[in-house]
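Input set for joint prediction.
Command: fold jointly, output tokens.
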Amino acid sequence: MDNNQLFQKFVAFSAAVHQITNDITKDVKSEALTPLQYKILEYIAVSQPVTLSEVSDCMQMSMPNTSREVKKLSEKGVCTRITDPDDRRKQGITLSAAGEALMNEAFQQIAVRFEQRIAGITAAERKEIEQALDLLQQKVFY
Amino acid sequence: MDNNQLFQKFVAFSAAVHQITNDITKDVKSEALTPLQYKILEYIAVSQPVTLSEVSDCMQMSMPNTSREVKKLSEKGVCTRITDPDDRRKQGITLSAAGEALMNEAFQQIAVRFEQRIAGITAAERKEIEQALDLLQQKVFY
DNA sequence: CCCTTTAGTTATCATTTGATAACAAAAACA
DNA sequence: TGTTTTTGTTATCAAATGATAACTAAAGGG
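tokens >
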């Protein structure tokens, strides 16, 4: 039943992460973007270049809906699509300059709030945190 | 600039947690509940008894919308509201028996998937993971 | 060369979610 | 006691998201 205890911790922890990150990213999203669009853009930012299918898979949304939302994003000028010369069905989606700027600004704000949150932490603690992040990402959240 | 590196790790980590938990809880939600309703129920399950205002705060949604969704949940028979005798404006929201059953089933499924994920881990690693979860929850995601 | 599969698009409709105004009742307070 | 604040409700509307069908074009495979 030790397994169950670990699971309890996992659930509580995941809930905490969701809550804190929601809190931190709250009203960061540009007025021009819907929440979904912001999330998609965030995904593009981290994984670019990506294909439509990859966005669809990762965001767990249907191709038609993905197509629609990404189309809106490129109409808003925050991302660019270039047809893959090797397979002209595919397109590489990347952030445009405007998109990069927008996401930089967002991350900037998030960074500020993150730093407030860990303000007054010692160097040793920081080291511990880094190691814990690495460990969990490697063994649980991979 | 060490701060910035830690922040990078934090962002990557949060993204990973979101993705994995989304994956794990995917299609766990009962057919009878919308995603929002499932999240609210999950929150009630963890924090019961809660008031409408607390749900509203925590889920970052307006009181009217919170009222509507919680009303739907109680109409579906998964939660119960009892007026606080000390302050009859407030109501304590808890899971009903059916709600408990539903959430138990959901957690059961999530637990199974979690265990698959950490299958083949040594006792020492398990210990490390537990400590890492505790540390982060205490120092970052509090 | 035909057939199938993969990648993506467009259109349309239903449902969910968000926002706002107008309200009621209990509690707090002056 | 009368007024204000807190807690919640109801109704209504707009916008976002989800689901599905019908389609195009390129690639792959026999």
